[in-house]
Structures are given as structure tokens and as C-alpha cells.
Amino acid sequence: MGADKASLPYRGGTLLSHMRTLAARSGAASILVGGGPLGELQDPVAGAGPVASLCALAEYALPETVPSRWVVLPVDMPLLEPALVRRLAAAPARAAAFAGHPLPLALSLDAETRTVLARLKIRLLAQGSVAVRQVLGLLGGQDLGASDSETAQLINVNTPDEWRRLNNRP
């Protein structure tokens, strides 16, 4: 995109402020930002993507002091709606995502998840990247079905052309 996506202007704010509002409207008890210059969590490998932020979350979030269920919302999916986020958060599996879309991701931050993320951090440090699909696979992630209207919300904005199309939507 040529710029930090979180800082891009969107609906009178930034993509990051939009996603923070979405998280709050979806019922989030805690909101943390991972990765990037605006992140509260420092990724163990800068620029390594969402799994690096998951590893940082596992190290930051002490079991006694923070919620054990987390929903990871990518800043570049601004069409998500609170009902879809709440449905994802309510999935009973340790890890869940919508079929064909590894993000957004619901994750229970229990002992097994922490162990898996600690192992993935070692791989991340050695290889520089790990796919979110690997996290889902190692945790026995649940693929949730999505209706056509829900699938339309699961669109990433990764290129300048996609950004222009998003901003030209009615």
C-alpha cells in the first residue's frame, strides 16, 4: 500500500480507529493493537504478520489478569460488522475462523495455545514468517461457514486498487 494501513483515513478517522470502534461495538472487554508503529504489543519479529502479534499476545496476556478469549481483527478488513465478530467470538473451539479466511480469528489463550505459540515463535524467529493457517491447524481450529452477506464482509484491502474500490463503495 505504500503506507501503514492502520493510519489510512477511513470514515472520518483511520482504519485503526474504525477497527477499535468495531471491536468495542462487538463487546470487546480489552482491545490491544499488535504490530506496526501504532501497536501496543511489540512483535518478536517486525513485519512478520499476524502470528508474530499472536506470539506477543501470549507473552503479554497473563492468564489471571486478562480475558482468555480473544478475537484478532485485521486492520485491513473494514467491512466486518459486529454481529459477525460476535458469532466468531462465540465459536466453541480453541481456535476458529471462517472457512477460507484465516482472519479474523477467535482464539482461547489457554495453556495449550500458549505452548503452540511459544513453539511457533521459535519457528518465526528462524524463518521470518508463519502462516495463520498453521496456528489453526495446530490448535484443531474450527472452520465456520459464512453466508454470502457474511463472506462479503471478509474482504481484505491490500493494494491501492482495492483501497480505491473500498472508498468508492456506496
CATH topology: Spore Coat Polysaccharide Biosynthesis Protein SpsA, Chain A
CATH C-level name: Alpha Beta
Mean pLDDT: 89
The biggest beta sheet, please? Answer: 4 strands, mixed
Q: What share of residues is helical?
A: 25-40%
N-to-C SSE series? EEHHEHEEHHEHH
SS strand fraction: 5-15%
Radius of gyration: 15 Å
How many discrete domains? 1
Structural class by sheet pairing and helices: alpha+beta
The CATH H-level superfamily is: Spore Coat Polysaccharide Biosynthesis Protein SpsA, Chain A
CATH architectural arrangement: Alpha-Beta Complex
Low-confidence stretches: none
Strand order of the largest sheet: 3-5-4-6
Span between termini: 22 Å
Number of helical runs? 7
**Strand segment count:** 6
Salient structural properties:
170 residues, alpha+beta, Spore Coat Polysaccharide Biosynthesis Protein SpsA, Chain A, two-stranded antiparallel ribbon, 6 strands
Can you give a write-up of this model?
This protein has 170 residues and is an alpha+beta fold. The longest helix has 17 residues. It has a single domain, classed as Spore Coat Polysaccharide Biosynthesis Protein SpsA, Chain A. β1 and β2 form a beta hairpin. The strands form 2 sheets. A 4-stranded mixed sheet has the order 3-5-4-6. Strands 1-2 form a two-stranded antiparallel sheet. It is built from 7 helices and 6 strands. Helices cover 39% and strands 14% of the residues. The protein is globular and about 45 Å long. The mean pLDDT is 89.
